[in-house]
Protein backbone atom coordinates (compact mmCIF):
# COMPACT_ATOMS: atom_id res chain seq x y z
CA UNK A 1 0.00 0.00 0.00
CA UNK A 2 2.82 2.39 0.89
CA UNK A 3 4.58 1.63 -2.40
CA UNK A 4 1.44 2.39 -4.43
CA UNK A 5 1.00 5.66 -2.53
CA UNK A 6 4.57 6.74 -3.20
CA UNK A 7 4.21 5.90 -6.91
CA UNK A 8 1.05 8.02 -7.11
CA UNK A 9 2.79 10.91 -5.33
CA UNK A 10 5.80 10.72 -7.68
CA UNK A 11 3.53 10.58 -10.74
CA UNK A 12 1.56 13.57 -9.47
CA UNK A 13 4.72 15.58 -8.83
CA UNK A 14 6.19 14.84 -12.26
CA UNK A 15 2.89 15.73 -13.93
CA UNK A 16 2.49 18.98 -12.02
CA UNK A 17 6.15 19.87 -12.62
CA UNK A 18 5.93 19.37 -16.39
CA UNK A 19 2.60 21.20 -16.46
CA UNK A 20 4.04 24.14 -14.51
CA UNK A 21 7.13 24.15 -16.71
CA UNK A 22 5.05 24.27 -19.90
CA UNK A 23 3.03 27.19 -18.54
CA UNK A 24 6.25 28.95 -17.48
CA UNK A 25 7.74 28.40 -20.93
CA UNK A 26 4.57 29.74 -22.55
CA UNK A 27 4.61 32.85 -20.35
CA UNK A 28 8.31 33.38 -21.05
CA UNK A 29 7.79 33.07 -24.81
CA UNK A 30 4.98 35.63 -24.59
CA UNK A 31 7.24 37.94 -22.57
CA UNK A 32 10.06 37.38 -25.05
CA UNK A 33 7.96 38.37 -28.03
CA UNK A 34 6.98 41.51 -26.11
CA UNK A 35 10.61 42.23 -25.19
CA UNK A 36 11.72 41.69 -28.78
CA UNK A 37 9.32 44.35 -29.98
CA UNK A 38 10.61 46.72 -27.30
CA UNK A 39 14.32 46.04 -27.79
CA UNK A 40 16.27 43.51 -29.77
CA UNK A 41 17.65 41.37 -26.93
CA UNK A 42 16.41 37.84 -27.52
CA UNK A 43 19.52 36.16 -26.09
CA UNK A 44 17.94 35.72 -22.67
CA UNK A 45 14.76 34.44 -24.31
CA UNK A 46 16.60 31.76 -26.24
CA UNK A 47 18.49 30.82 -23.08
CA UNK A 48 15.28 30.56 -21.05
CA UNK A 49 13.43 28.57 -23.72
CA UNK A 50 16.33 26.12 -24.01
CA UNK A 51 15.95 25.05 -20.37
Short synopsis of the structure:
It contains two helices and no strands. With 51 residues, the protein is mostly helical. The chain crosses the membrane at residues 6-23.
Secondary structure layout:
Elements: H1 2-38, H2 43-50
- SS strand fraction: under 5%
Report Rg. Answer: 17 Å
Helix content, binned percent: over 70%
> Main beta sheet: strand number and arrangement?
none
Identify the quaternary structure here: single chain
Overall form: rod-shaped
How far the N terminus sits from the C terminus, by CA atoms, comes to 36 Å
The ordered H/E elements are HH
Number of strands: 0
Question: Structural class of the secondary structure composition?
Answer: mainly alpha
Query: If you average the pLDDT, what whole number results?
Result: 73
Structure, described:
- The chain is mainly α.
- It has a domain of 27 residues.
- The protein contains two helices and no strands.
- Helix 1 packs antiparallel against helix 2.
- The protein is rod-shaped.
- Keywords: Membrane, Transmembrane, Transmembrane helix.
Amino acid sequence: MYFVGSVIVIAFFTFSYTFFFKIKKYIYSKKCSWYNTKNNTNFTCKYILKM
